[in-house]
Design a protein that fits this description.
Length: 316
Amino acid sequence: MIQTFSNWLVYSVFNLSADSKIGSSVNFFVYDTIKIYFLVIIVIAAIAFIRTFFPPHKIKEVLSKQKFGLGNLAAAIFGAMTPFCSCSSIPIFIGFIKAEVPLGIAFSFLVTSPLVNEIVFVMMGGLFGWKIAALYALAGIVLGGGAGLILGKMKLENGLILDSGVAGQALDKDYLPKTLEGKFQFALRESFNTFKKLWWVIALGVGAGAAIHGYVPVDFFRQYLGVDSLWAVPIATLIGIPIYAGCSTVVPIVFALFGQGFPLGTALAFMMAVAGLSLPEAIMLKRVLSMKLLAIFFGIIAMGIIIIGYLFNWVQ
């Protein structure tokens, strides 16, 4: 239905040729933008409704008591349910630390939150298919849980520098409606408020992806990024680190790269590095972590992203 509308709008109303680069790009943009808009509104509302049953302060209490890696897994799953970028996740990470949640468990949340959330899952499902979306979500949760478990075992608490100027989000000030009607209203409000903040970001990301889809040849990436080489995944990861953007912005671009012949794992490694290991994140974390702990954190996550990239290339 959306594809039919997109074809009618682009090829009949706009009178663009289906065989032209601009026609292909505009059709890509219209179809994927509308589809993602609908999915984001529906899924955000559903997740927001579910979250009304789990107040953050209760989640904090539960995480502090978990053993055998279950706390890391729970924190990673909680991170996957929060629609935050890497910088937005840091105040909650600080809140966990101040609440004496174990460091490794707090790191599990910090890793997963910007990499996996309902928005990214919906966009991945709409563009790559739900199997790839599910595998990506699983990979992100495993990365967050595993990295947090490793960091926790390393006993790096002496690397914490709690700067009083960094204010964590007040997790205890969580108003959650009690009645069913209130929960539905809260879910709809969260959905539309999130959509109002993201619609232009989604359009911008899909627009960039559409431009790549229609105008950037496969040989460009093969020539300049060496996508067929063994070093493609590490290079893509390193290139992604200086760039700051949320996964919701990068997913359409990654999809366009994949459509142009870019290996899936290499493209995903680039996206995960952009979303989860940005320079703004490093600058903010430097106010609460020592340089040694920050370097260890970035190194472990980068290695995890590279491994995930190779795995996706292998199963592609």
